[in-house]
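[recover] target loaded
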């Protein structure tokens, strides 16, 4: 139900974005809330949802509880993959790589190999390597309905806008640039054509949109340190020094014993 309702919410925002919001990097401007309100909303939902996953993991003081929450969200991410909601997959993967969660070494060491394998597979799918090469290949082979990761296309548009002049050297409008922008928007539009047949479940939607349980970055990091404190450098240094000292004493004792044995009294 969680994966389906994530998809329901992602689709609702994606389908509301008109072509005009993708022009002129409107989502980066000071008046972005006016020029690109739906892109801003989708970005906010992405970030808030990732914080929800982070907050749920690090709010668990018990190690086994943290592992169970990681397993839960891994399963949700994999169902999102099956639903072709790649935005949802990336929302959860982003939470797993958040510094407050990623640093929980004791927790991650206890996560089962099968769950870690699933996480690795999902992270490889949505990796930004090669300009999201794996995700692009998957999207081209995927039948609708589908929710892409919008940030990938926003990066494409930014690259075109900033890397290509509006006018040619002869002062004419650069139609090649216009065609490149149109191609990206056309790709996005194809994902806005086929809706999912998912009914809204108010209880689950309210849970996903409840901002009351979200921690900010500082709260998350402090809570992370609380559940798994840093290994003290002083303690590590002290422990190493004690080990060296103990080894030195043992070596001296052994040497003294050998010398004593070699000069011992000869039996009559």
């Amino acid at each position: 139900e969680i994966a389906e309702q994530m998809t329901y919410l992602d689709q609702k925002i994606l389908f509301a974005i008109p072509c005009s919001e993708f022009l002129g990097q409107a989502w980066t401007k000071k008046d972005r809330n006016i020029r690109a309100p739906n892109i801003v909303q989708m970005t906010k939902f992405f970030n808030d949802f990732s914080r929800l996953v982070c907050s749920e993991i690090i709010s668990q003081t018990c190690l086994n509880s943290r592992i169970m929450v990681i397993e839960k969200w891994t399963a949700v991410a994999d169902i999102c993959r099956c639903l072709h909601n790649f935005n949802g997959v990336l929302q959860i993967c982003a939470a797993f790589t958040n510094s407050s969660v990623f640093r929980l070494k004791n927790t991650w060491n206890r996560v089962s190999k099968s769950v870690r394998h699933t996480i690795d597979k999902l992270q490889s799918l949505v990796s930004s390597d090669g300009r999201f090469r794996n995700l692009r290949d998957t999207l081209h082979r995927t039948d609708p309905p589908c929710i892409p990761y919008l940030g990938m296309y926003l990066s494409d548009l930014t690259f075109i806008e900033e890397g290509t002049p509006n006018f040619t050297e002869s002062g004419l409008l650069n139609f090649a640039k216009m065609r490149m922008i149109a191609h990206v928007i056309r790709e996005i539009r194809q994902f806005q054509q086929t809706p999912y047949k998912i009914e809204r479940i108010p209880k689950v939607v309210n849970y996903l949109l409840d901002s009351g349980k979200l921690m900010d970055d500082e709260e998350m990091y402090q809570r992370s340190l609380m559940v798994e404190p840093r290994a003290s450098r002083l303690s590590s240094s002290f422990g190493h020094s004690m080990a060296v000292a103990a080894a030195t004493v043992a070596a001296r004792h052994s040497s003294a014993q050998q010398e004593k044995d070699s000069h011992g009294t000869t039996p009559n």
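[recover] notes: The chain is about 70% helix and 0% strand.
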